[in-house]
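Entry:
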Amino acid sequence: MYGMLLESVQHFVQLEYGEELWLRVVQHAGCRHTVFNTHQVYPDTLITDLAAACAEITQSTNDAFMQFFGRCFVRYFSNFGYDATIKATGRYFTDFLQSVDNIHMQMRFTYPKMQSPSMYLTHVDENGVVLVYRSTRQGFTYYFMGQLFQIAVEIYGFDDLDIQMLETHNTASGSKNVQIKFRLNFDNREYMATHSKKNIFMERLSLPPVPAELLLEFFPFGMIISKNMNLLGVGEKLLQVWGETPAILGDPVARHFKLRRPKGIPFTWNNLIYLHSVIFEIELIRNLIKSEIDECIDRTTGERINVSNSYEKKSDKEDSDPEMLTIKPQQPNLAASLDRRGSQGTRCILLQGQMRYIEDISAIIFLCSPLINNLDELPNMGLYLTDLNPHGLSREMVMQGWQNCSRLEVMYERAEQRSIELERNYDLLESWKRRGDELLYSMIPKPVADRLRHGQNPLSTCESFDSVSILFCELVGFNSDTIRDVMDVVTSMNSIFSCFDALMDKFNVYKVETVGQVYMAVSGAPEPTPDHARNVIEVALCQLRDVKKLDLPTTVHVEIRIGIHTGPVVAGVVGIKVPRYCFFGDTVNTASRMQTTSESGKIQVSNVTHKMLPPGLYNSIPRGKVYVKGKGDMDTFWILGKKEELAVESTKTGI
């Protein structure tokens, strides 16, 4: 779907429910777009996801919000002047319902990828109409009903429209196509009275009958189709461009013509009858390529294909139902894959016009003219200006290149291609931005990095913290006498430090850096927390436990020793080339001394850190006085583990 539908939803949800609710809806629906582009194509499921999110947040229903979204679209497109297009279709609401497909056809240049629904009327009376709605999308039934309600109120000035759903079914097994029959109840007396007067006037004319051949003279590219979908007659110019071939009269129309518009429907009698108010486009399959189409080889199977019989006839059951038409997946048509461009006189001709039923002969006549972009196309089609209708401005429109301008189509194709490339580049930009963020957050904490992004000076990130806990962990026992040993050491260090990195976010601890075989982490900065001492102890215990579980090379035997100290520090971003978030102060030095004076496989903490631990949670024993360079003798403690875990382990070992 195009962005205009989503723009209307965003505008009126923000207007009637507020900006805050809209942001919640976008997040809840998993939509990564906050702004929509009118001419950009978005997934069809996006609008249904937004409706589901709105319904869940506001405690309403999905159908109610889909109907609300349909009303929003009608209110929104008036800003683009499309309400004038609807008003121009006719004086009455019924006129509009009969002209919807024509409106969509005219919009195909502005929105070339629009997958519009189709509809037709099967019954009209003074109390309303019976409408059959067909769509390739499921879940938009109430959206369509909302559009009808709003058009009735805003454009035709009545608010008593009542819509009843009579029948609904999917048109084919496994297909997304849906077909629904509605009963629309409204005051339709003026429309019926106008058409009654028109019928009475036509009956009073008492004109003599006109032969069908005369109509084909007025429309030399027209054709007459019987109820069994055979060709009863064709115009003179159509026979001329057909070439020297056996007579085509009596042949199935689908053998020589391909239905281009309306899209998504089979070429059947019922469709021609009920879509009489819709403009049809039919492509003539030229005789020079027809021999290739009638009988050719399937490249994948090697079997011979008869394309003439590839048009499946509807079942008797379907023909017997005059109101419900089915949409079938279109049969493979090799003519569809053939380019309309070709050499002199070989290009297929596209005919555009209206289907009219003639009761006297129980047949349909296709009153049409060829679609020609400019004079350059005439030789390729084997046509001349004198072949075109002398009425209807056909010749003048070809001369001026107005009709179905090919240059305009090329422009739209290029614009669409640029839009696709732009969207692809946008996704690539998002991917690289995400990678850049991950790299930045690995060097600088996210809160600090976000402040720098907002333009703050790096010096402003320098701040003091009254109390943090710093952990130093050193890998000991490495032996690297040979090149192979060195490679094993590097591989082992990568595995161990990666294991430690996974513990940081789990316990709200920030990894500062690794220097050689020493790993440094801190809790309490840059995001202060009162549990910083407990956090680093939990990390230290996990480090001791997890390093023993790693699958390291057999030549590597590694142990770790850990030291922890608590106190005030100053932290800030340092450097330009490779900026880092560094910590300064006596606390850092003391924590490093706790690690260097520790022992393999043990956790040594200072007295300050020990006092900040929750009482009774950890099993610790005093180590006594330890000489620390620059500090003198300090009281330190060994942390053995959690008391609960140690009690369970003692029970298992029987101690």
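The first helix runs from residue 3 to 17.
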